[in-house]
Amino acid sequence: MLEEIDLHIEHLSESMEKVMEHLSFELNKIRAGKASPAMLNGLMVEYYGAPTPLQQVANVSTQDARTITVQPWEKKMLSHIEKAIFEANLGITPMNDGEVIRLMIPPMSEERRVAMVKQAKASGEESKVALRNQRHKVLDFIKKQIKNGFPEDIGKKKEDDVQKIIDNYVHKIDKVIEVKEKDILTI
After folding, report:
1. How many domains is the chain partitioned into structurally?
2. pLDDT-derived band of residue 150, with 50, 70 and 90 as boundaries?
3. SS3 category, 86
4. Which of 26, 43, 72, 130 could link 77 by a cystine bridge, Cβ 3.0 to 4.6 Å?
5. What local confidence, expressed as pLDDT, does residue 64 receive?
């Protein structure tokens, strides 16, 4: 029984790392007034009838702090990429010069920065909810094992271990959100 509980706790730690990876991915999408190729991560482009990640059909790079360039490997992909950027509703209008698509990142207003901070905090809250859901699964498993004859004192210790893991990850999420907030609010 102890091995099963330890296995569930180990699985909990793996799940927490996945939650942190997802949070980082989501926060990379939130721009802080600077151009970043990560803003286009997850953007799918129609390529020969199949949705394909933008990075597989074009080179995405930053020209300067306010400009992202997208250079497709096939010129006929320009219109498909432009359409995908419009549909992604990034708040950026692509400029197509026949060779390259340029995305000019406008400076953010104070109002927009506050909205971005709220979006970042919402992502952090979603991550915390995911942590709590995972915690409940493991705690329910431990309680079930206690009912089936597992020693209660060891079960309580394992519950405390689970709570310490969760508290550690909640603290990590708070730190990540705090850093992103400073990044967004810095002009």
Report:
1. 2
2. confident
3. helix
4. 72
5. 84
Half-sphere exposure of 128 (CA within 13 A, CB side): 16
CA-to-CA separations, 120 to 29, 61, 93, 111, 137, in angstroms, rounded = 10, 24, 23, 14, 26
Give the mean pLDDT of the chain.
87
CATH number at residue 82: 3.30.1360.40
pTM: 0.69
The answer to whether 132 and 16 have CB atoms below 8 angstroms apart is: no
Give per-residue pLDDT as tens, 13-22: 899 999 999 9
Looking up tokens 């206690």, which residue turns up?
Answer: 146
- Structural domain of 125: 2-29+109-185
For residue 58, the cross-strand partners are 72
